[in-house]
């Protein structure tokens, strides 16, 4: 009897497993279908938002060409900038957009950034110049063409010829994105004061202009001298770079040092050794860093701010000229707080920007500049400084370090030629250093 019951139990068990497996398959199949549907709706929403934003951007680009009112220019510039941000956000949510739409992304970003530069100009009462109107007309035409191309793709998506992901009866949208990129129309070269201005693509290191190229051997000698190591301990690990071509050397214990091909100047140093317990104060570390810079040919440097992390202090130094702080000429030095050794160095800002400047006499006196500082701020100190703009141009400003009513510190920069407030930085101070925002 037990022998007869055993097969029946096995069969019942197998049937139960089959039911469970079928139920699980059905459940997870429904879940997968729901997830796919949610993803599809997300793509649909993003594509529609992209088209809407581009249409709004196009309309604002058309209007701004025909107005001379600074207030209207401000409004329309803000609309263009806002719609470009919306378009960038929508574009990032589409499949394969990062790999497939580089030119489109660049166009949208540059258009928004260009509009933001017009917004700043309008806030100072400036009208749109004829040259800027030509650039806006070119951007407008490109926006219209792009909107038209993407609208055609949307129609193909709606008809099922295209899909967001490749299917048995449809092509993937990313393939059509590739076609849009290949046929992307030319538009005006945008040179303006902003981070996407095309003049930045051609920017070269001022510190290296006129410098002769050095050999690998000469670069190794410079690297060894800088970090106090024997030359034979340095092996070439890489040679190249974009705007600053370097020889990159490394040691067996992980120290790396980059030396520029032009001029043989040290670009960066990194020592990844473990740092022990701190024995130096922050002030002592700043002094060590300052002495290090002097010993390596960086004269007339001024400490700016520092940050502390895991017993390492990173100090930012700026060059000075005639008692004017040159903020673009930036060098960062990292000091280990266990023994005061320099374990990090980076001079990109210094190499890109440092040169002897012709500094004009300020038109705006310190007394007049003080009147441009908000009355709620208490001015603690003042000076002159060269600051970089978002497009890496430079402005001579009156610098005022101030205190807010609640005890926070801010820095206000007043243009020394026009008296206009150019920038305001909030200083976030903590036990780990100071961060300027």
TrEMBL record:
What would be one Pfam family of this protein?
A: YPEB_N
Give every Sporulation protein YpeB PepSY1 and PepSY2 domain span: 174-359
Annotated InterPro entries: YpeB_N, YpeB_PepSY1-2
Any idea where the Sporulation protein YpeB N-terminal domain is? 34-163
Q: Which domain of life is it from?
A: Bacteria
Among the GO biological process terms of this entry, one is:
spore germination
- Quote the protein name from its UniProt record: Germination protein YpeB
| Organism name | Candidatus Ventrousia excrementavium
């Amino acid at each position: 009897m037990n022998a007869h019951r055993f097969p029946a139990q096995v069969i019942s068990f197998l049937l139960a497993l089959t039911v469970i497996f079928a139920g699980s398959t059905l459940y997870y199949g429904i879940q997968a279908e729901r997830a796919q549907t949610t993803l599809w709706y997300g793509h649909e929403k993003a594509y529609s938002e992209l088209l809407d934003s581009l249409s709004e951007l196009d309309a604002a680009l058309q209007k701004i060409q025909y107005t001379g009112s600074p207030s209207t220019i401000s409004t329309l510039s803000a609309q263009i900038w806002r719609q470009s941000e919306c378009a960038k956000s929508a574009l990032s949510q589409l499949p394969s957009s990062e790999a497939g739409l580089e030119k489109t992304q660049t166009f949208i970003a540059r258009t928004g950034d260009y509009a933001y530069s017009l917004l700043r100009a309008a806030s100072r009462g400036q009208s749109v110049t004829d040259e800027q109107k030509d650039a806006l007309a070119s951007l407008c035409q490109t926006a219209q063409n792009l909107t038209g191309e993407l609208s055609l793709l949307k129609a193909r998506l709606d008809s099922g010829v295209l899909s967001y992901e490749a299917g048995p009866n449809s092509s993937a949208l990313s393939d059509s994105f590739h076609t849009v990129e290949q046929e992307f129309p030319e538009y005006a070269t945008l040179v303006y004061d902003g981070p996407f201005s095309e003049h930045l693509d051609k920017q070269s290191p001022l510190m290296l202009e006129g410098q002769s190229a050095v050999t690998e051997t000469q670069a190794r000698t410079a690297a060894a001298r800088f970090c106090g190591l024997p030359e034979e301990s340095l092996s070439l690990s890489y040679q190249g770079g974009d705007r600053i071509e370097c020889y990159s050397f490394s040691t067996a214990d992980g120290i790396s040092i980059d030396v520029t091909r032009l001029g043989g100047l040290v670009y960066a140093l990194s020592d990844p050794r473990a740092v022990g317990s701190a024995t130096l104060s922050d002030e002592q570390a700043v002094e060590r860093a300052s002495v290090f810079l002097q010993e390596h040919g960086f004269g007339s440097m001024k400490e700016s701010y520092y940050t502390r992390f895991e017993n390492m202090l990173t100090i930012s130094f700026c060059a000075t000229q005639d008692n004017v702080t040159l903020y673009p000429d930036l060098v960062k030095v990292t000091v280990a707080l266990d023994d005061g050794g320099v374990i990090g160095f980076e001079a990109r800002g210094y190499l890109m920007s440092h040169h002897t400047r012709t500094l004009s006499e300020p038109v705006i006196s310190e007394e007049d500049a003080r009147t441009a500082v908000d009355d709620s701020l208490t001015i603690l100190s003042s000076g002159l400084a060269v600051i970089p703009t978002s497009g890496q141009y430079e402005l001579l400003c009156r610098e005022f370090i101030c205190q807010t009513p609640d005890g926070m510190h801010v820095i206000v920069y007043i243009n020394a030629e026009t008296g206009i407030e150019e920038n305001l930085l909030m200083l976030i101070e903590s036990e780990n250093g100071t961060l300027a925002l």
